[in-house]
Amino acid sequence: MTPAEIPVELSAATADLEAFRPDMEGCSRCSCCKWVPLNQVRSQRFSQVCPSISYHDFHAYSGSGKLNVSLSILDGRTDLDEAAAEIFYSCTMCGACEVSCKVYRNDIDLMSVLNEARARAVETGHARLAHLVMVEQMEAENNVFGEPQADRADWEEATRHLPLVDANTEQVDVLFHVGCRYAYDRSQWGDLRDALEVLVATGMRIGTSRAAESCCGFRAYETGFKNELTKFADDMANRVRTSGAKMVAVACADCFGAFNHLYTKAGTPLGVPVRHVVEIAAGLVADGRLRPVARPSQPVLSQPVLSQPVRRITYHDPCYLGRRGQEFNGWWDPGTDGNKLDRPDDVRRRGDGGRYDEPRAVLDALPGIELVEMERIREFSWCCGAGGGCLEAAPELSEASARERLEEAFATGADALATSCPWCVHNFRSALDGMHAEGDTRSIEIVTLPALVAESIAGGKTEIMGETLPEVTL
Ligand code: SF4
Ligand code: SF4
């Protein structure tokens, strides 16, 4: 199948690029979207913020360039041909351009333009073949990898010791959505188990949909197949409803961005709070129910805290847990005489509503760990490169983005790079493998933040800790 042969039901006309004409026309071509805002710049080396313009080094690939190309298409000065589509798809959809733009301006919904431009590309037969395959697989097996739906709960092999409830047949407090990468990437089942151990520490009834779970649908939407989202959103909402869950929990930033932001933006909110495990861990630490202790390898029993060996950790903010995951709290319509520059503060969405404090609070609470920050953090973070369909259709750009982040992590001198998303973990580990294959001898451990928490708590961690530390209570 070629992109031009996209089935009608996948390509039905839903793109509304025209609705965002004022955003495109509002671009002053100042190029601030290529850089970290000036007051955030720490060095020239790490001052860029857009993986696409950084990789291609040509204006059209920047956020501004994509607005300009979109406007040219609307005005009939450019065809949406393969060249234009390649520009739209050379993008991790990380949202860094929008944050930088909104520091200086308030009137451009840059990511909405990129979403609509991609939807227009799908409609006109210019989808990426890799995305078409992915979406077909999502249609057939409800996951982005095309793995059998029946195998979706195989991860349970790694969590048999945990009291998880079957949310298909029993009522639960929390419905944990595993997500495609954790469900099918066996190499990350240890991280999944650690995330679930943190959740179980809340004492609430934690359930999963087991093999009945489906993809969140985010990747279909982000790659231009907007129509596909409805099916996955309806399915998720139905499972939340029948399980009686008061909360949805996730350990994947993509799923967080889908449930917490996109579903509301697309008009299909889940109706219950969505929490990432990192937020839940931060809450447990804050209310004193989780008191992490040092890892067993550290001489905790005989030496004072200050003499413990320190593990230096740097933290990568996943885009969809950060700037692209913050709550969608409504469109701002300035009306015919209005001006988007008057947008009220509560719907500005400049990326500062992401989950930045929670992971840092958790790291702060872990004994023997020192947080050493990279230069581009929080809403100004550099992307891991795995998002926006880049991993599937623009792998060189995806890997270049991951390598750039690794360079920034190396510059901190950290022993480990922690993050809160299996897609970031996957991209960083494979980029590091690629660097090693080329003879680069530098290394850094890639870990998840829940894994760091799980290392330091008692209760069923015998396979990791080798012992239960009785002084820890949950
Ligand atoms: S920062 Fe905003 S206004 Fe300036 S060039 Fe980029 S998109 Fe246009
Ligand atoms: S979303 Fe990210 S990669 Fe795409 S144009 Fe904006 S900053 Fe660049």
Query: What's the helix count?
Result: 20
Structural class: alpha/beta
Secondary-structure element series? HHHHHHHHEEHHEHHEHEHEHEHHEHEHH
Largest sheet features:
5 strands, parallel
Global morphology = globular
Strand-helix topology:
Elements: H1 8-11, H2 21-25, H3 51-56, H4 63-74, H5 82-89, H6 96-104, H7 110-123, H8 129-141, E1 165-166, E2 174-177, H9 180-184, H10 189-200, E3 206-208, H11 218-222, H12 228-243, E4 247-250, H13 253-265, E5 274-276, H14 277-286, E6 311-315, H15 357-365, E7 369-371, H16 390-393, H17 395-412, E8 416-419, H18 422-437, E9 445-448, H19 449-455, H20 462-465
Helix pairs in contact: 4-7, 10-19, 14-15, 17-18
This protein binds iron/sulfur cluster (2 copies).
Summarize the structure.
With 474 residues, the chain is of the alpha/beta class.
Structure in words:
With 474 residues, the protein is an alpha/beta fold. It contains 20 helices and nine strands. It has two domains: 3-131, no CATH class; 132-462, no CATH class. Helices cover 40% and strands 7% of the residues. α15 links the parallel β6 and β7 (369-371). Bound molecules: iron/sulfur cluster (SF4) (2 copies). One iron/sulfur cluster (SF4) binds at residues 50-52, 62-63, 66, 91-97.
